[in-house]
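[audit] Reproducing an earlier prediction to check determinism. Same input, same settings, fresh worker. If the tokens differ from the archived copy the diff job will pick it up downstream; this log only records the rerun itself.
[audit] input (202 residues):
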Amino acid sequence: PTAGALDCVPANQTVNTNQTANFSASGGTGTFSWATNPAGSPSTGGNLSTFSSMWATAGSKVVTVTRGSASDTCNVNVIVPSPDFTLSKSNDITSGLSGFSTESTIRVNPLNGLNSTVTFSVLSTNPALAGATYTFTPTSLSSSQYGTGSRFRVNLASPVAAGTYTITIRGTSASPVIIRTVDVLLTVSAGGGGGGVAGRAG
């Protein structure tokens, strides 16, 4: 800014609803004064060179800083964040060389108001598990079931080598279409397993 001028930075920024927008000012003389239009809440730093505020509604907002006879404005574009989610697992699982594994519960952690059915499938295994089948109970979760989750289990119909297998589980929401994944580790050992045999839940 020119000598004696007041400068508000950043001049333009985009934030989500209910996300803090931060500003700073330099130049001018005297005490800083900040104002938001429309009003933001909460706002902090009203007579300092730094200021922050947030808005619960989307749209264009203007922040004005004044110091002495000088003033400047910053523009804020507040947007509604898109729905999203993450997946989490309750635990990793174990299995004998064949038969059923123990169970892991797969849960949906909604973000930004997600309210859509999420359907589960196995995306990949590393190393490969030849002949394995995978069970999700239930296979999909509505929003009211996100926290309860889906019980995941592996059935090794044919014996496999002992070791640790990474199973990547995919969750797909219906609307909007979003795909997220979580890895469940399957440890196969001669003494492991979920207490069942192939073809029987046990």
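[audit] rerun output stored. Observation attached for the diff report: Confidence is low (pLDDT under 50) at residues 196-202.
[audit] end
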